[in-house]
Specification:
The complex is a heterodimer. Chain A is of the alpha/beta class. Chain A is about 50% helix and about 10% strand. In chain A, the strands form 2 sheets. An 8-stranded mixed beta sheet of chain A has the order 7-8-9-4-10-11-13-12, with helices on both faces. In chain A, strands 1, 2, 3, 5 and 6 form a 5-stranded mixed beta sheet that branches. Chain B is an alpha/beta fold.
Chain lengths: ~625, ~350
């Protein structure tokens, strides 16, 4: 969401919108000051100077009765702008109130209001307007009021939609618990969160209203000639179009420019209230691979190896110096808290980083550096060599196709199977992931699956290409703990049956202990420790790993405080020069913050690395001394 | 830490609470909570633990007036609060507050932190703006957020800081009961520990009672005085935290504990065996809501489990279980080693 002043700042940065706003303000000021600045009375006729082109006496010329066009534009603008204001205020006030009530309260009231507004939209507006003018003696205000009422649905629908989306937010519940009334909640919490789209639509509405009003005035509705109005002036210009075409320019151009100004303002407001607008539009659509690293050799025996991987978003480094390798049939666990860079690392391997990301380093897969390989090679590897499952299995499943449909498509793409052979393979895969009724599951749509079943189906999708490596990003985080166990058992069995390697990304050290052979511990974008799973738990070689283990309430002594890690993870862009964990670390000395720390082997151990220069002290200390 | 609540010191008394949801025309109502009794004493933390669909959050919603109560009573200091809305809720908010799960949606993004934290005080009359300011500063300082940052919007804070701010909002009126609905579930372990410690300190200082709703057995075991285990809207087991977490009596509690993966390789391997052994699909299932809801997954299930719904029985002082095979279940429990105390992670 957006703070109030951010939108203003964003708006001011857009030249077209800003220019339009300045233009509109100038129009409004000069129209408001018509009495002071208009050179003539708008009705004063001068037969000695009819249909004049612009000259010193009449800057915009005169019309067929010799009236000064500039003066008439200025006075006519008053009718026009006040009319727009009336119509827009009616539409916005009524639309917001009804929209908030319908969107926030919902229920039968919502149904009634929505049907009513649909009714209003179905009524031919021009007929109602004509009747209004006929019944009120061509009253301009009555006409604009009715036009406002006819425009209520525009604002109502935007407000209702936005309010209904906010209704489910927890902060609304929090206010209800405090006993804040519905009205107050709507004004204080719903409205400030929905006004973005309302403002945009109000600007569009103003433009549309100006167009309609111009048309009505052209027909001499809502204005009584010879009183000036912009639409009326177009009408007058048209009657002498052949004698003096110039006359069409001032009124026509004013209307056109004002409408364009409203629309450009709406456009700029839309961009300014859009939170995604921070991404520079010039950013490449694909992540960029920079070639600054000298290519290393493919590591022997490794199926997948990441070397000196570094990822930056828009120049801000989020992952650096990540290295690990995975052997066939091995399970690597990448563990870390939010902001550690574990998911970015997986995305870099999968080539699925967002726009604005730049990647350096190497990702070796079966002896080929995927980051620097030709595109078709990368696609082939990522299509069937490396598969992926995510925390939310629904992301992988298309809601509009059955399980059989989407799994069948994958089977067809990977193996070229058709007809009965394809169906057989689909059922085989569903059986392989332990679904009790493969045929029944195959006929279902994703929304008919429970969370655990959906994750099994997404694993079946991943298995369709017989992958060598499965990257599982928090595969059990969204599931109940009893289902988590079943999914972990399934992954373990699939690894043993198919010999594929697994890279599992998790924040839960318990999941690591359950399934991983080796562990990569990440903190603030770096690998801080890497070891066999037994070593990590038996003698953790980095203060962060120790602190993470100690903070776990799982084996805490009841009644005593948990050993929390003070402070927070430093955000990307504000990483310290030296050890990223130093400020929170009880072992830290000045040397820790002086220079970057390297990931180095822990003494007396072949396959254990730690990014800590105080490793000896850490290993000597008791595990309980993790927090100062 | 009192296992039994003396009469008169009861802060919250829920009796025979039932809540059901409409599932649309022609479909039976979903029974989210069925006949639940829960009592919370002064300064006590009672946890309601269960998986998704257990009805734990529905109970929290019923206490807070966010969910309509179908039948039963909810008393706060002897005063009926079930179904109280509007002005009555506003009066209650001096004594009853809540902390919710998602630190990113529980604060209004369009309001400053000071606005959000001072909101509960709006219901309290007779406070000058200076007093409100002082109270907000004081409570923010207490939860570890610099009051100088209070004019910022929630987007400027991390998840852990936002949850501290949510706690500050809940505590600014010094309530007697706080409902924490998955209040630490979205936080990283290291930040979660900070927040759990904070809740514990605040409780010791002010004698606040907590209803702590969570799916996480490890967290619940640490923070609770008593634990209520919920499954399919019914209480399966209830008792002092150390008993329920370390000596579970109900097969469901045991399967819930066995499923928690522990950060220790050998211990986890043993637990995995126990977990696999306990994972069964039986032929027994409750019909028309009668019978034990866990029977379809229970390793001890037999025909009588679904003949009638097992009542929640006190089998030892302060300990209740809704299992007709309670003695067999207790016997199994001693052999399995699913309790989290079998771990020695924190020791050097």
């Amino acid at each position: 969401m957006i703070g109030r002043f951010r939108v203003v700042r964003q708006f001011l940065r857009r030249p077209l919108g800003l220019t339009s706003a300045v233009f509109l303000v100038l129009v409004i000021i000069s129209v408001a000051l018509a009495k002071l600045i208009a050179p003539y009375d708008p009705l004063a006729q001068d037969y000695s100077a009819v249909l004049a082109t612009p000259n010193a006496a009449h800057p915009l010329g005169t019309d067929q009765l010799g009236r000064d066009v500039l003066s008439r534009l200025l006075y006519g603008g008053q009718v026009t702008l006040i009319g727009i204001l009336e119509a827009v205020v009616v539409a916005v006030v009524v639309g917001i109130i009804l929209g908030l009530i319908a969107g926030y309260l919902g229920g039968p009231l919502d149904t009634v209001l929505s049907r009513l507004t649909e009714l209003v939209m179905a009524i031919p507006g021009i007929v109602v307007l004509l009747m209004t003018y006929a019944l009120t003696g061509n009253n301009a205000h009555a006409g604009m009021f009715v036009l406002g009422v006819l425009s209520v649905p525009t604002i109502y629908r935007v407000t209702r939609g936005a309010a209904a989306a906010v209704r489910g937010e927890t902060f609304i519940s929090a206010s209800r618990v405090v006993g804040i009334g519905r009205g107050a909640i709507m004004v204080r919490h719903v409205l400030p969160n929905v006004w973005g789209p309302i403002i945009v639509n109000t600007a569009v509405l103003a433009a549309v209203t100006l167009g309609i009003q111009g048309g009505l005035n052209y027909l001499a509705l809502g204005v009584n000639p010879p009183a000036p109005s912009w639409g009326g002036m177009v009408s007058e210009a048209q009657s002498s179009l052949l004698q003096q075409p110039w006359l069409m320019v001032p009124s026509g151009l004013t209307i056109a420019l004002t409408i364009v100004a409203f629309l450009l303002i709406a456009d700029a407001l839309r961009d300014a209230t859009d939170t995604r607008s921070d991404i520079p539009s010039s950013a490449p659509r694909q992540a960029v691979v920079e070639d600054s690293t000298a290519p290393s050799a493919a590591p022997e025996g490794a199926l997948l190896a990441v070397d000196r991987l570094r990822v930056a978003f828009n120049g801000v480094r989020v992952v650096q110096d990540v290295r690990f390798s995975v052997a066939p049939g091995e399970t690597i666990g990448i563990v870390g808290e939010s902001g550690s860079g574990k998911t970015v690392t997986a995305s870099a391997i999968l080539d699925s980083l967002d726009a604005g990301a730049s990647v350096t380093g190497c990702v070796w897969f079966q002896g080929v550096d995927l980051l620097h390989a030709p595109a078709h090679h990368r696609r082939a590897a990522r299509g069937s060599g490396i598969a992926y499952i995510s925390q939310d299995p629904m992301v992988a499943l298309d809601p509009s196709f059955t399980v059989a449909g989407q799994l069948g498509e994958l089977v067809a793409r990977h193996h070229g199977l058709r007809g009965a052979a394809r169906q057989r393979r689909v059922l085989e895969l569903l059986d392989q992931v332990g679904l009790p009724d493969p045929a029944g599951t195959a006929r279902r749509y994703p929304h008919q699956l429970s969370g655990g079943m959906a994750q099994r189906v997404s694993i079946a999708c991943a298995l369709a290409g017989n992958p060598k490596v499965l990257i599982a990003d928090e595969p059990t985080t969204a599931l109940d703990v009893t289902i988590q166990g079943e999914i972990l058992d399934l992954l373990r069995r699939l690894r043993d049956d198919t010999g594929m390697a697994i890279v599992i990304i998790t924040h839960d050290l318990g999941v690591i202990a359950d399934i991983a052979d080796r562990v990569v511990v990440m903190y603030a974008g770096e690998v801080v420790e890497q070891a066999a799973v037994e070593a990590v738990f038996a003698s953790p070689g980095h203060p962060y790993t120790r602190a993470l283990l100690a903070a776990n309430p799982i084996a805490s002594e009841r009644g005593k405080p948990l050993m929390a890690i003070p402070g927070t993870v430093p955000r990307p862009g504000s990483w310290p020069t030296g050890c990223h964990f130093a400020v929170r670390c009880p072992f830290a000395t000045e040397a820790c913050s002086a220079a970057p720390i390297r990931l180095e082997p822990v003494a007396n151990s072949e396959d254990h690395e730690s990014r800590c220069i105080r490793i000896d002290e850490v290993l000597r200390s008791s595990r309980k001394e993790v927090v100062s | 830490m009192t296992a039994t609540v003396e009469s008169g010191s009861e802060v919250l008394k829920i009796r025979n609470l039932s809540v059901s949801y409409s599932q649309g025309f022609g479909r039976p109502r979903l029974r989210a909570v069925q006949g639940v009794d829960i009592t919370v004493g002064r300064g006590e933390t009672v946890s309601i633990v269960g998986e998704s669909g257990s009805g734990k959050s529905t109970i929290g919603g019923a206490i807070l007036g966010l969910t309509p109560v179908e039948s039963g009573s909810i008393e706060l200091y002897g005063e009926e609060i079930a179904g109280v809305t509007g002005k009555g809720r506003r009066a209650l908010s001096a004594r009853l507050q809540a902390v919710f799960q998602d630190p990113f949606s529980s604060l209004d993004p369009a309001r400053t932190v000071r606005d959000s934290v001072s909101e509960p005080l709006r219901a309290e009359t007779g406070l000058t703006s200076t007093q409100v300011r002082e109270r907000v500063d004081e409570v923010l300082r207490r939860v570890g957020v610099d009051p100088a940052l209070a004019s910022r919007y929630p987007s400027a804070f991390s998840g852990g800081q936002r949850q501290r701010i949510s706690i500050a909002r809940a505590l600014v009126r010094r309530p007697q009961l706080v409902v924490c609905d998955e209040a630490v579930s979205a936080l990283d372990v290291s930040v979660q520990a900070q927040v759990l410690n904070l809740l514990d300190e605040l409780q010791k200082e002010a004698g606040t009672s907590f209803v702590f709703i969570s799916h996480n057995m490890a967290v619940v075991r640490h923070i609770s005085d008593r634990i209520v285990v919920l499954y399919h809207g019914r209480i399966m087991e209830e008792g002092p935290a150390e008993d329920v977490a370390d000596r579970p009596a109900h097969p469901y509690t045991r399967s819930l504990l066995a499923a928690v993966p522990v950060p220790e390789v050998n211990a986890q391997r043993a637990r995995r065996m126990a977990r696999t052994a306990a994972t069964v699909r039986t032929e027994f299932a409750p019909v028309d809501g009668i019978g034990c809801p866990f029977a379809p997954r229970c390793p001890l299930a037999e025909a009588r489990c679904v003949e009638s719904t097992p009542p929640l029985v006190e089998f030892a002082p302060g300990r209740k279980s809704a299992c007709v095979r309670i003695n067999d279940s207790l016997a199994v429990g001693h052999e399995e080693g699913v309790a989290l105390t079998t771990l020695d992670v924190a020791a050097s």
